[in-house]
Amino acid sequence: MNISRNIAIGAMLSGVFTIAALVSFVWIPYDIEALSIAERMRTPSLAHPLGTDHFGRDILSMIMMGARTSIAVAFVAVGIGMGFGVPLGLAAAAKRGSLMDELIGRGNDLVFAFPSLLIAILITATFGPSALNAIIAIGIFNIPVFARLTRGAALSLWKRDFILAARVAGKGSAHISVEHILPNLSNLLIVQGTIQFSLAILAEAALSYVGLGAQPPTASWGRMLADSQTMISLAPHLALFPGMAIVLTVLGLNLLGDGLRDFFDPRLRNAEK
Amino acid sequence: MLRFAILRLVSLGLSLVVASIVIFTLIEIIPGDPAAFMLGLNAQADTIAVLRAELGLDASPLERYFGWVTGMLTGDFGTSYTYRTPVSEMIGERLWISLPLALIALGLSTLIAFPVGILAASRRGSLVDTVVMGFTQLGVAIPNFWFAMLMVLVFSINLRWFSAGGFPGWDEGLFACLKALTLPAISLALPQASILARVMRSALVDTLDEDFMRTARAKGLTRKQAIRHHALRNAMIPVLTIIGLQFSFLLAGAIIIENVFFLPGLGRLIFQAISQRDLIVVESVVMLLVFAVILVNFAVDITYALVDPRLRRPS
Known about the structure:
The complex is a heterodimer.
Chain A: H1 3-26, H2 59-94, H3 99-113, H4 116-127, H5 131-158, H6 161-168, H7 173-209, H8 221-229, H9 236-264
Helix pairs in contact in A: 1-2, 1-9, 2-3, 2-5, 2-7, 3-5, 4-5, 5-7, 6-7, 7-8, 7-9, 8-9
Chain B: H1 2-29, H2 34-39, H3 45-55, H4 61-73, H5 87-122, H6 127-141, H7 144-158, H8 174-208, H9 211-218, H10 223-261, H11 266-275, H12 279-307
């Protein structure tokens, strides 16, 4: 596999949807809250490149708005995972073998033991379905991912000479973690972040599909698919385009993640996670 | 080995205790009184109070938690608020759809992934490898429920080979039931098979570079024999881990897929129970699924300690 090809295709695919999401803030082809029964379930045409849905809403516009939802949810969810997971991992590595390290480790194991989607369903069912609760549910499961990754990588860094030098210079472990360990983890975190981002998009789509994600009128790819299901024999294009949007975004992010990993660390070229 | 097993068993027990507390607390927070919900808008306060007492809702949370846990330990999952039938019976019925579905999907996923992963690894860098890995890359990116919808579109609506959903019940014969589970199982299995094939490939590729592989070839084994007898066993650790993890994905995935195909399994039961505030059903089903997942992870840990003696030492 060619490294730069992965990065190029991945960046292009995820770039297209990021741009679509950004453009949707200033312009979308049609207002998605305006219903037009006369225009409903149109197949793709010049006026509506991806057709219209059962309320006559323009699918392209809805996919652009949906990109915004997906990306926002994934961004914040991965942010939660990194924001809590990385400090926990750094702390556990700095105080290796301590009670805190043990507690953080067991906590990670516990969250991992839960089937994530099931607990996400439980959380959104408890606190009511909304994009915010979907974010929290997905974010919680990102915390142990980053905590474990950070701890593992930080542990091996702590054995290096330059850390010893920093300790000799009299720096405390918190100082060293932030100033010397963290910068050396950035590549690893970027790669894992990309992968978690794509998983978060899939999770958001699944939650929205079962009605536990973003609520109307917020557009969401998962809910577009749920809405299209009963009409799939009449208007297959309703089910086709939102699904393709999910697949292409996730594919793009995965390729980008793989490509970046190879780019940062050529030794890992054959090791796929 | 015994020490390892006991340590793992203790942590299994701890996980279950914490899991039950988390689930119970979450369910406690769910707004809405089940008794008030069951009696409707015009219910009198005293009727609600009577029903609350009857359902055991007037006890303190701590009492109810212990009642729930001890009940489950003896196989008594309580009585559904909505249907007034034992929850264990409801779960029993539904389990015979969800469990076969998850197991068939797991089997399919493994059956597809092993040959594909081995093929790609043994022809690393070739056109076959690139094409096959390209497909798995796509498979990983496809949401299983969307794939399920596409399958319905092709095989049910256009070709009319399968019905688009529903389940005939096991009384209607094994064939009819397996037929109803075919599309759901395939939609669940394919994305998982893609992940597993990628893991299989990379694990094999790693072992193919090991010295013992060169030794095996040097002593006269063919490439095929060397892979079959030496590389595969050594590549099994990551593969087993992923298979274990996949079981939990498949159980949770089954919840979503059951919705696509209107299968009356545990997933449908959970959603129904949530909308009807049948909290005792929700907490018991979730606990059961979590228990299954924790148990499988335990089994995987034990299995790879058996496969690889190096892992028996505590880390």
